[in-house]
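Input/output pair, single chain:
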Amino acid sequence: MKIFDNSYLSPAVKYIAGVDEAGRGPLAGPVVSAAVIFSDDTIIEGVNDSKQLTEKEREELFPVIMNKSLSFSVAAVSHGVIDRINILQASLLSMSVAVKRLDILPDLVLVDGNKTFNCSVPVIPIVKGDSKSFAIACASIIAKVSRDRIMKRLSLYYPDYLWYKNKGYPTREHINAIKLNGPSPLHRKTFLRKILVEAAGPGFF
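Output:
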């Protein structure tokens, strides 16, 4: 993975930022993105696409990644903004903000996926980048751990939805809780129409 990143180094490209997001699929809470820059000789054992790691493994890697990075940042875009501009645009916005928050201006940004975002430096989209790029994989871990912690904290205020377990994703328990209790103020209303129709029964809308 580090070889992949270093292949982009050149006299004009010294600092490469990896960027990824977490939380496009949940029914509640923000989408969270992270950006991270490393020196070209940094290696961290165990780094992989965050989806391939256990929660325990991600939590263990989280402080190591931050400590070994030259710079890292996190940005969240709220459920309200997601409802207003849609999840794709909200994800791109959070990634753009994460890059702007870095203490070091990167010369190049590698982002997971097939979309780019507004940035003052070149951005290269990498399909399945979190399994190819070391920096993107590390960003995916930071984003995932950061968002999971947010949802666990919010779960204290809205315990009926079991966010401490499901992190806002559409598990059966979460969907049933929405049908029973209605949506919380932190749910993405544009994601819930089908669920609310099912809860209300035929002819409600």
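The beta strands are 16-22, 31-37, 71-77, 108-112, 123-126. Residues 134-155 form the longest helix (22 residues).
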